């Protein structure tokens, strides 16, 4: 990673004692050491996520570098109360989607999907019920408290571990587990045995 970030990541400071909120406030003021600490704190988990999606080391590094480059340039316009972990995670996800779009990696998938839809002339009642149930479940997920919903979505959509979610959201693993259990319990109480097995086993 011999690049402009080497200087930042090699700086020695006691900024590791600061929480994300303090680091974000300093970052907004263009504090290099705050940026260095955020970079060191979040690079591993963001790279791991990018590599999981892209399967290529160099491309994954490029995506994460782009995220941090944009973070530095946009720092003065950030809101002081944002969750920097969630902000970086979402930025990485968007960068990955942009990579797929630019490189047309998903072209074959879309083509296969199109062929499938052309052949699917009949939709059974069972599939209609599944579609309705899916929409109802999504509506209930949207009603979950913000933090609980964010934990649930990171687990369901990105398959992150409790430790990874804790790192992204800057909360404890116990809090992540508690929020997940509450989310599943809420959905189970609402839908009972109709709740898909993969959701109940998250």
Structure in words:
The chain has about 200 residues and is mainly alpha-helical. The protein has 2 domains: about 15-120, Rna Polymerase Sigma Factor, Chain: A, CATH 1.10.1740; about 125-200, Orthogonal Bundle (Arc Repressor Mutant, subunit A), CATH 1.10.10. The chain has helices at about 5-10, 20-30, 30-55, 55-75, 85-105, 105-120, 125-145, 145-160, 160-170, 175-190, 195-200. The protein is globular.
Features:
transcription; DNA binding; Arc Repressor Mutant, subunit A; mainly alpha; Rna Polymerase Sigma Factor, Chain: A; 75% helix; single chain; 202 residues; 2 domains
Number of domains: 2
Mean pLDDT: 78
Overall strand count: 0
Indicate the low-confidence ranges by residue numbers. 6-12, 116-126
CATH level 3 topology of the largest domain: Rna Polymerase Sigma Factor, Chain: A
CATH homology-level superfamily of the largest domain: RNA polymerase sigma factor, region 2, helix turn helix motif
For the largest beta-sheet, the strand count, sense and barrel status come to: none
- What is the tally of helical segments? 11
Radius of gyration, in Å, reads 20 Å
- Category by helix and strand content: mainly alpha
| CATH architecture classification of the largest domain | Orthogonal Bundle
Quaternary status of these chains? Answer: single chain
CATH class of the largest domain: Mainly Alpha
Beta-strand share of residues: under 5%
GO molecular function: DNA binding; sigma factor activity
Domain RNA polymerase sigma-70 region: 38-104
Keywords: Sigma factor, Transcription, Transcription regulation
Protein name: RNA polymerase sigma-70 factor
């Amino acid at each position: 990673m011999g690049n402009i970030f080497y200087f930042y990541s090699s700086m020695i400071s006691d900024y590791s004692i600061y929480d994300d909120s303090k680091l974000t406030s300093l970052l907004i003021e263009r504090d290099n050491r705050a940026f260095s600490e955020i970079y060191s704190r979040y690079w591993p988990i963001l790279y791991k996520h990018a590599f999981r999606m892209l399967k290529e080391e160099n491309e994954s590094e490029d995506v994460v570098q782009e995220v941090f480059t944009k973070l530095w340039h946009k720092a003065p316009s950030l809101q002081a109360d944002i969750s920097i972990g969630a902000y970086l995670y979402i930025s990485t996800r968007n960068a990955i989607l942009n990579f797929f779009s630019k490189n047309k990696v998903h072209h074959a998938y879309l083509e296969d999907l199109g062929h499938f839809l052309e052949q699917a002339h009949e939709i059974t009642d069972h599939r209609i019920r599944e579609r309705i149930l899916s929409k109802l479940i999504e509506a209930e997920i949207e009603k979950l408290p913000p933090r609980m919903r964010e934990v649930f979505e990171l687990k369901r959509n990105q398959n992150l571990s409790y430790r990874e979610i804790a790192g992204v959201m800057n909360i404890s693993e116990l809090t992540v587990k508690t929020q997940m259990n509450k989310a599943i319990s809420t959905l189970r109480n609402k839908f009972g045995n109709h709740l898909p097995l993969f959701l109940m086993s998250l």
